[in-house]
Amino acid sequence: AAKRAGPGSLAFYTPEMTVSSANRLQLLQQLRQALQEDEFVLHYQPKIDLATATIIGGEALIRWRRPDGAMISPGDFIPLVETTDLVHPVGQWVLRTALHQMRIWSAASLPPQQVSINIAGPQFASETLPDEIAAMLAETGIAPHLFQIELLESLLLDDPEKARRQLIAIRKLGVTVALDDFGTGYSSLAYLSGFPVDILKIDRSFVNNLAEDAGNLAIIRATIAMAHGLGIRVVAEGVETDAQIALLHRLGCDLVQGYRTGRPMPAGDFARLIAADPVTMLPPALIKLTTQ
Ligand code: C2E
Ligand code: MG
Ligand code: MG
Ligand code: MG
Fold first, then answer.
1. What pLDDT, in 10s, does the model give residues 182-201?
2. Phi and psi for 127 in degrees, rounded to 5?
3. Ranges for the EAL domain (predicted)?
4. Cα Dmax for the chain
5. The predicted structure's pLDDT at residue 22
6. Residue 203 in contact with ligand 1 by CB distance below 6 A
7. Which atom belonging to ligand 1 lies closest to the Cα atom of 62?
8. Peptide bond preceding 278 in cis form (omega within 30 of 0)
9. If you take atom 41 of ligand 1, which residue's CA is the nearest one?
10. Would you state the pLDDT for residue 276?
11. For residue 26, which phi and psi values (nearest 5 degrees)?
């Protein structure tokens, strides 16, 4: 291997790397084709308001349905997409598909849902993003306050002044902004308070062992207190147990999203779910607890 190579040998070029860059090229080719052949799909994961115990909307999450029927999760292709020029067409596809889906639900007179999409770094950095969102809102007639974008906090840090301008332009449309996977970056909430955002999504690594880990409990409690002090609402991600829901409610968390209250699902399943109004996906024992 290259690491053990002696002087004069071709360091850094290992057989494994050759294979993996060939794989990378092949995967990229397949992803371009996937876009052309319309092989991407969005699934929607419910977000539940703990104050009313009802679904208020969902997060759109991309999947790749291969011609052989295999469903590929975003973790296996989005990192590659985000480092290539595919990031723009894929991002535009997500924006268009989510808003057109909302249009379909609205035309079917389903209760209005707030839908969020994930925005990649290069997409957020693009000067044209606010106009693209505005154009798609106009095309579909969706009320801007029902639409939300999710960003990693790291996207704000490269060029904070540019990020702030971009956030202002997007929020001016009436669209809301959520900071995704909050707590996994290195920035403090105090620093982030300089950016206009509407929602913090506490990363699931803090929620995981919330009931057992006093440290994570303290972090979540402090995050909620500071966020509320700044007028920011809080979503807990990755909620998997009733104990977590009960605790998060006690801590004043506004919304939950996780396998316990609904996995990401195809648009048709999500529509059936929200067709009943008002609808809850909270475990029955917790409905009373949260709404009393
Ligand atoms: P994310 O935006 O933080 O999305 C939440 C992820 O956590 C989703 O994984 C979701 O299925 C998963 N999750 C939700 N509840 C639970 C739970 O209770 N337990 C556990 N263990 N996991 C839970 P998914 O769909 O595989 O997406 C992974 C990441 O891929 C997303 O993280 C997001 O960063 C990225 N991604 C997904 N869709 C898009 C997209 O359309 N565009 C871009 N740029 N990135 C996307
Ligand atoms: Mg997200
Ligand atoms: Mg997240
Ligand atoms: Mg994530």
1. 988 777 777 788 899 999 99
2. -60, -25
3. 24-278
4. 74
5. 81
6. no
7. 38
8. yes
9. 62
10. 78
11. -65, -45
User: Phi then psi for 147, rounded to 5 degrees?
Assistant: -110, 140
pLDDT of residue 273: 92
Distance from the CA of 153 to the center of ligand 4, in angstroms? 11
Q: Is 57 in the pocket of ligand 1 (CB under 6 A)?
A: no
pLDDT digits (tens, 9 = 90+) for 29-48: 999 999 999 999 999 999 99
The pTM for the full model equals 0.92
Centre of ligand 2 from the C-alpha of residue 275, in Å:
24
The ligand whose atoms approach the alpha carbon of 121 most closely is: 1
Decide: 58 in ligand 1 pocket, CB within 6 A.
no
CA-to-CA dists, residue 103 to 43, 46, 79, 90, 214, angstroms: 16, 18, 29, 20, 44
DSSP one-letter string for 26-82: HHHHHHHHHHHTT-EEEEEEEEEETTTTEEEEEEEEEEEE-TTS-EE-GGGTHHHHH
Q: For atom 33 of ligand 1, which residue has the closest CA? A: 118
Ligand 1: which residue has its CA nearest to atom 22?
238
Q: Is 259 in the pocket of ligand 1 (CB under 6 A)?
A: yes
User: How far apart are the CA of 22 and the centre of ligand 3, in A?
Assistant: 30
Between the CA of 119 and the centroid of ligand 3 the distance, in Å, is 11
CB hemisphere CA count around 115 (13 angstroms): 30
- Residues of the chain above pLDDT 70, percent: 92
Cβ neighbours of residue 90 closer than 8 Å, sequence gap 6 or more: 31, 35, 40, 62, 81
